[in-house]
Fold this protein.
Amino acid sequence: MTVDLGQFSTGDSVKNIPALTTVKYIGKNALNSSKTYKVYKGSYAEQYCKDNNIKYAYVDGTSSTNPSTPITEFPKMEYTKTLGPVTFSNYVSHEERNLNDAQDKNITVTWVRISDKGSMRADYDNTEFILHLFDAWNSNDEKDTGRTDNTFGMGNWTLKSWDITPYKTTKTNGTWSKGLTWQFSYNTMENNNTDRNTHRITIETNGKKYYYYISVVTDKPTGSTTTPTTPTVPTTATATPTASKVMVNGKQISFDAYKINDNNYFKLRDVAQVLRGSEKQFNVTWDETRNAINLISNQIYISVGDELTSGDGMTKQSILTTSTIYKDGVEISLTAYNIGGSNYFKLRDLGQTFDFNVTWDGVNNTIIIDTSTGYMEN
């Protein structure tokens, strides 16, 4: 179906909007992605269709086109620095500042300086990047905001108009999966006017907001010189029963635990069971459809019946767990091994994830778990 851009259906009626060449604002999600719209070459409407992956054809009947194929090769992440839920490349420096938002409320803003072609990458699912063109953070004026998949409501501006190139991931229920990236270019025409090289940005991740002020500068980057990588983990490993005594909040508990690659691995559900009712309790659920383990903090653990069963004291072969792991809906990276159908996690990783302390008493050959204090690196 091909329709004029100025026609929008409501039920069975069609409203005609004249002057297609002068359209300056099309609301977010106003057009139907299953239709093809007629636009004038070089118009705001054409740019809107391009930015929102909407099919279109020219009014004069020439050069019928579809939106271009989305960019799949993301920018290389070098000189990196992770700040909150995002990682910046070409990082130079940052500082925290207390500023007022559009509602005159005090907020903490991370002031980040990056060099030309520096990027901002989402490290979690359910993320949205929001650029505030002139207003401060938390402005209610949608016409002042720019998002990954739309133009500014105030006129024929796009992110690219402000030297920002978006690299899209998968969008679900209005938010983007991790890996969403914006790349910032230094505007050499603005060396006497920094407006085009500074950006007020809000990042929303799983309902929480983070505030940034990004300055694109000519300084050399100082961040990590290589892209962060996940250490290589053996896919199989020998699991030797742990001979150490285990104390949990002053009480000795018997676990079926193993030493794998010189680290103590505990059955996930055993740890959830013994922390049940404590200030660091968490629940565990299994999502077979997604092959995912869900960890829910501050929720009472629901037992399945085989927790804290004794092991046979035999050395076993463990297999690296391939399931995706989520904590409170956010994908996290934890190493786990499967032994006899149960998942065993590194105890210190669980302590760090749920903020309970794990210490080692070498004199008494004892592992100590304490939920009254937060996790501390030894």
Remarks:
- Residues 81-217 form one domain.
- The CA atoms of residues 280 and 371 lie 6 Å apart.
- Residues 1-21, 64-72, 227-231 have pLDDT under 50 and may be disordered.
- The longest helix spans residues 44-51.
